């Protein structure tokens, strides 16, 4: 991994304190230089995606988690805009349906995994079950898990087992060819406030704002602790977490794109080589086309 992006990695097995990460970091770049660099990296991603699709051996799962207004949607839009939509699938996970609550918490996420050769993007993910559910443990009761019919029973052991379930799930998926990248877009509380105000003041953005956003903002410290614990417990060699400074959206997009490009490069994928018999047949067909009158 290149040193300029290694700083965003939540190293597996280390204690995570978000206070050690600067939400406003943007290196020595300005916005215009960052945009130009992003366009160059996006071209790389387009080339890599074509190879991924042709090789048909791996898939890539990209997970985005963040507080409201951190820029998940715009990051997906800008970073992935150069990719072929036929090779991508985006899922935005909302509150589970009655059918989803009738299964274990990973069921709907397993169903949404990308097939080989494709890129899957999860806007929110199975991590909601150790983030929003950690802050609001009463939500766990809707899962109707035997032995957990009271919030008081949802203790440290419960969360320890849930983290373990996530690690096992991601290990299994990774061992079967899916490359997993997890991004926490780390925005400051002050920047979130400004973005909320922008949404309220601009009629074209009013639809983005929900009163529940303010309610959840009131649990900011609890969410930060939940994120720290989730990242600490589940950042692994095969499914690493990256903590992305998100106060400047343009910089967050650039960092994400660089990490993706570095990951693709590390896969060392190549276009398939035809067996000699098929290659000879292809040359014969080519000659047939050339000779056609």
Automatic annotation (TrEMBL):
Cross-referenced SUPFAM superfamilies: P-loop containing nucleoside triphosphate hydrolases (SSF52540)
Gene3D superfamilies: P-loop containing nucleotide triphosphate hydrolases
Keywords on record: Kinase, Transferase
Stretches assigned to the Polyphosphate kinase-2-related domain: 29-266
Listed GO MF terms: polyphosphate kinase activity
InterPro entries on file: P-loop_NTPase, Polyphosphate_phosphotransfera, PPK2-rel_1, PPK2-related
UniProt record, GO biological process: polyphosphate metabolic process
One Pfam family of this chain: PPK2
Superkingdom field: Bacteria
Family of the protein in this entry: Belongs to the polyphosphate kinase 2 (PPK2) family. Class I subfamily.
Protein name: PPK2 family polyphosphate:nucleotide phosphotransferase
Organism: Pedobacter nutrimenti
Organism classification: Bacteria, Pseudomonadati, Bacteroidota, Sphingobacteriia, Sphingobacteriales
């Amino acid at each position: 991994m290149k040193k300029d992006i290694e700083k965003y990695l939540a190293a597996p097995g280390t204690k995570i304190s978000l206070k050690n990460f600067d939400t406003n970091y943007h290196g020595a770049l300005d916005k215009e230089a960052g945009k130009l660099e992003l366009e160059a990296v996006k071209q790389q991603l387009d080339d890599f995606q074509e190879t991924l699709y042709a090789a048909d051996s791996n898939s890539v799962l990209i997970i985005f988690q963040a507080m409201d207004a951190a820029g998940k949607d715009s990051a997906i839009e800008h970073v992935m805009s150069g990719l072929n939509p036929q090779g991508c699938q985006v899922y935005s996970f909302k509150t589970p349906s009655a059918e989803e609550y009738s299964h274990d918490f990973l069921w709907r996420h397993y169903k949404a995994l990308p097939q080989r050769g494709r890129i899957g993007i999860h806007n929110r993910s199975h991590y909601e079950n150790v983030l929003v559910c950690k802050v609001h443990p009463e939500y766990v009761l809707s899962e109707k898990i035997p032995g957990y019919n009271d919030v008081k029973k949802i203790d440290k052991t419960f969360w320890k087992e849930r983290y373990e379930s996530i690690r096992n799930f991601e290990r299994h998926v990774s061992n079967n060819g899916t490359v997993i990248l997890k991004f926490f877009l780390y925005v400051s509380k002050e920047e979130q406030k400004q973005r909320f105000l922008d949404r309220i003041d601009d009629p074209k953005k009013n639809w983005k704002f929900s009163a529940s956003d303010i309610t959840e903002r009131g649990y900011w410290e609890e969410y930060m602790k939940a994120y720290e614990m989730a990242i600490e417990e589940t950042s692994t060699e095969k499914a690493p977490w990256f903590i992305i400074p998100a106060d400047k959206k343009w910089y967050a997009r650039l960092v994400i794109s660089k990490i993706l490009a570095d990951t693709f490069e590390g896969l060392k994928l190549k276009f398939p080589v035809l067996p000699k018999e098929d290659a000879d047949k292809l040359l014969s067909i080519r000659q047939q086309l050339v000779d056609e009158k």
